[in-house]
Amino acid sequence: MAVTLGTPMTQFSGVGEVRAKKLEKLGLSTAADLLAYYPRDYEDRRQMYTIRDAPLEGRVCITAMAAEHPRLARIRKGLELVQLKVVDHTGALHLTFFNQGYVEKALRAGEEYIFFGTVEEQGRRRTMVNPIFERVGKQNFTGCIMPIYPLTAGITNHLLTSLTRQALDCAACVPETLPQSVRQAHNLAELEFSIRNIHFPENDEALTLARERLTFEELFYLAVGLDFLKRRREAAGPGCAIPTPPFKTFRSLLPFEPTGAQKRVMDEVAFDMASGRPMNRLVQGDVGSGKTAVAAYAAWLAAQGGYQAALMAPTEVLAEQHYRSLSALLSPAGVRVGLLTGALPPAEKKKVRQALAHGDIDFIIGTHALISDGVVFRRLALIVADEQHRFGVAQRAALAAKSTTPGAPPQVGRRASGEGRKNSLLPTTNQISPGEPTAAKSETGGMPAPHVLVMSATPIPRTLALIVYGDLDVSVIDQLPPGRTPVETYVIREDKRARMYNFVRKQVSEGRQVYLVCPAVEENPGAALPGEEVPSLDLKAVKTYAAKLQKEVFPDLTVGILHGKMRPKEKEAVMAAFAAGEIQVLVATTVIEVGVDVPNASLMVIENADHFGLSQLHQLRGRVGRGKHQSYCVLVTSTKNPDSMARLRTLASTTDGFKISEEDLKLRGPGDFFGSRQHGLPQMKLADLAGDMRLLSQAQEAARRLLREDPGLSRPEDRPVLDRVRRLFSDTPDIFN
Ligand code: ADP
Ligand code: MG
To answer: How far apart are CA 97 and CA 480, in angstroms?
Structure first.
């Protein structure tokens, strides 16, 4: 078969419909995908050993001759054994193959092979079980540096390796998109060389060169894309200048005295909003630091100035909670607060939309429904995005830009009196367009660009913050409200489960409530995560676990259940019941990860804790310790991996979110921070930002230089860059496509 970049997986030998489906899960549909699917690690199989000198640990390559014809034996039904002896000048090695009957015919006495496997010693005998073998001189899997790919259930590394080898036939056809000037300035390897060597490195130097080139490339396109986004924001034009009334008026609404840090951040926000330029500010504050009050203040400012504000939460649960607490806080000041989520009945939604268009709602709280079609504001001046890591850089930039984007917004219901003041959150351009920065503002009607306030509890290490938030001003709430006692955290193993249940009971008997978090919704979560060889078994699943707890462990308590697959209405009801104290033990998935605030909850138990990232565990832990009661977090694990254990211990030893995120970065690499899940940034495949600071600044520099020369990337030689950036950012959900 002649492989081209577009050759579908099904045309590769060894791939049928079933495997093609599974490969698709890894994002692999064509030869081009294979070439762009980089190994996560390598195994050095270059060293050849003699039978006598081969070490007993790790897998090794041995060149040896089959000394006899393989013997096939059927031990019992479903168990076939093939055995034979192979020799070299130092001795003999006894091979056993289980359930690989074909080996009987595949190995021929007198021929030389390379065997790759683990050598074991039984008495004086050296043995190897199920080795990989190849004829000398015809090697694909031995005698070289082998790639190790991220996998999924049903797809072996062996399969991926051989598919990728076939795909390499068209490596030369992958179009080079890095401008030559950039390649030369930074001494970057050629594309074809890099592709070949990232998969099957000729040697260590070649691998280094390949990786450097491909990493640079990723960072370069990222930098170019972010620059576009930033320019879009700068093109947004003037912001509303909203005057700052005396603070004591707002202070009198709050049930508490704001902390010094909260007050400082509020002042910064007020200053921005009064400045006449659109605010673009990130508020970083650890869980429980009181970010909501800052959001409330900003919305209050907007409403006092006669404008509308919108707050977007990442989940319905959170939106509803914000709605409850913020309307309680702000209604006394005459602020009309509304809620708009996907869960509302259509008629209700329509009513809310009309009220927004008419200016009958001052402060709207919602989920993504807010950026969906048909939402039109009358005087929108402020957008708050809570728990920003669920929204993403690109989304945020799009938001900031969209309300000034020319073009008639879709109409709602009756025509709202036709002044040119309405603006929509809906983007009318679907792509990053290099655009002419000035075109947008001149055509907009009366409304200037809205202020944008982003709130995040994910502490990001400084190095990463630079890129991720490169286009934002940052405020930090570095102080917790007074009277908080840190959550006591324990790591326990299965043998303490009974004690843990007793502790749950004790908390409940003292009038407290408990969260119990599980990693899965249903039994048998199916495919393993990429990078995991085997699907993890025995993950505690919310449904069965909750049923079991209710029946066998806490028959006398009220056990509730909350997970992402429930209908919004059900979720809402459960959260309300928990907040009202009607549910004592809430078994949940990570839907409760962000922002849920029930001060009476004092214990957080996390099952299979090793399955979560440290920062995520920290977020979860932040759900307790929000009231006046001493709170606890119990991490249950049965991991045998010392690294996982070390991670969990880190969490038990500190409550400092920044420290934890730095530890997470060290232990797990930046994937989690930099993955699209966290920030809406495109997924980086190679870039290890902790280690690649040098490359990163080079890539940023190169991006800047190119964009200085060709701001719109409109020169023919720069078009491929533009296309790449578009594609890279099109992965970011809801924004550019
Ligand atoms: P987060 O930063 O995690 O969003 P919240 O805004 O939800 O934190 O605040 C956590 C809890 O602390 C809430 O119950 C809130 O009412 C309370 N809180 C916030 N600020 C203060 C303060 N200055 N003094 C006392 N309690 C506060
Ligand atoms: Mg919050």
So the answer is: 62
Q: How far is the CA of 681 from the centre of ligand 2 (A)?
A: 22
Amino acid 328 reads: A
Bridge partner list, 97: 82
Q: Is 593 in the pocket of ligand 1 (CB under 6 A)?
A: no
Mutate to test the pocket of ligand 1, among 292, 315, 322 (most ligand atoms within 8 A of CB): 292
Please state which CATH class domain 242-275+289-456 belongs to.
Answer: alpha beta
Name the pTM for this structure.
0.60
- Which has the closest alpha carbon to 326: 295, 367, 301? 295
Pairing relationship of beta strands 91-98 and 48-49 according to DSSP bridges: unpaired
| Domain parsing of the chain, residue ranges | 47-143, 176-237+662-737, 242-275+289-456, 488-654
Whether the CB of 599 sits within 6 Å of ligand 1: yes
State the distance from the centre of ligand 1 to the C-alpha of 553, rounded, in angstroms.
Answer: 34
Atom 20 of ligand 1: nearest residue by CA position: 290
Our CA dihedral for 76, 80, 86, 92, rounded to 10 degrees, sits at -30
Q: Which residues contact 441 (CB under 8 A, 6 or more apart)?
A: 235, 236, 237, 238, 404, 449
Q: How far is the CA of 511 from the centre of ligand 1 (A)?
A: 21
> What is the residue with the minimal CA distance to atom 27 of ligand 1?
481
In our burial notation (b when 16+ CB lie closer than 10 A, e otherwise), range 310-335 reads bbbbbbbbbbbbbbbebbebbeeeeb
Of the CATH numbers 2.40.50.140, 2.30.110.10, 3.90.600.10, 1.10.357.10, which one belongs to the domain with range 47-143?
2.40.50.140
| Alpha carbon of 289 to ligand 1 centroid (Å) | 6
The atom number, within ligand 1, closest to the CA of 622 reads: 3
Ion ligand 2 contact residues with beta carbon within 5 A: 595
Summarize pLDDT for 594-628 with one digit per residue, the tens.
657 788 999 999 999 988 878 788 888 988 988 88
Tokens of 729: 């950012």
Only one residue has tokens 């080898």, namely: 165
**What pLDDT is attached to residue 297?**
98
Q: Is the dihedral of CA 529, 531, 534, 539 positive or negative?
A: negative
For residue 125, the surrounding DSSP H or E stretch is strand 125-129
Q: Answer whether 242-275+289-456 and 488-654 agree in fold.
A: yes
Q: Tell how far the Cα of 633 is from the centroid of ligand 2, in angstroms.
A: 19
Q: What is the pLDDT of residues 479-499, one digit of tens each?
A: 888 877 789 999 999 999 999
Mutate to test the pocket of ligand 1, among 262, 286, 458, 597 (most ligand atoms within 8 A of CB): 597
The Cβ of residue 495 has, within 10 Å, a number of other Cβ atoms equal to 8
The H-or-E segment that residue 18 falls in is helix 17-25
Three-state SS at 204: helix
Q: Check if the beta carbon of residue 561 is closer than 8 Å to that of residue 589.
A: no
Q: How far is the CA of 142 from the centre of ligand 2 (A)?
A: 53
Paired residues of 283 in beta bridges: 455, 475
Residue 157 to residue 149: CA distance in whole angstroms? 6
| Ligand 1 lined by 258 (C-beta under 6 Å) | yes
- Check whether 58 has a pLDDT greater than 90: no
The C-alpha atoms of residue 699 and residue 697 are separated, in whole angstroms, by 5
Pick the CATH number of 488-654 from 3.40.50.300, 3.30.565.10, 1.10.510.10, 2.30.33.40: 3.40.50.300
pLDDT tens, residue by residue, 384-435:
988 655 555 555 555 554 443 333 333 333 333 333 333 433 333 333 333 3
Q: Is pLDDT at 466 greater than 80 in this prediction? A: no
Gap from CA of 236 to ligand 2 centroid (Å): 28
Q: What are the backbone dihedrals phi and psi of residue 140, each rounded to the nearest 5 degrees, phi first?
A: -120, -25
Tokens of 576: 């309300």
Rounded CA Rg of the chain: 30
Task: State the average pLDDT over residues 107-128.
Answer: 92
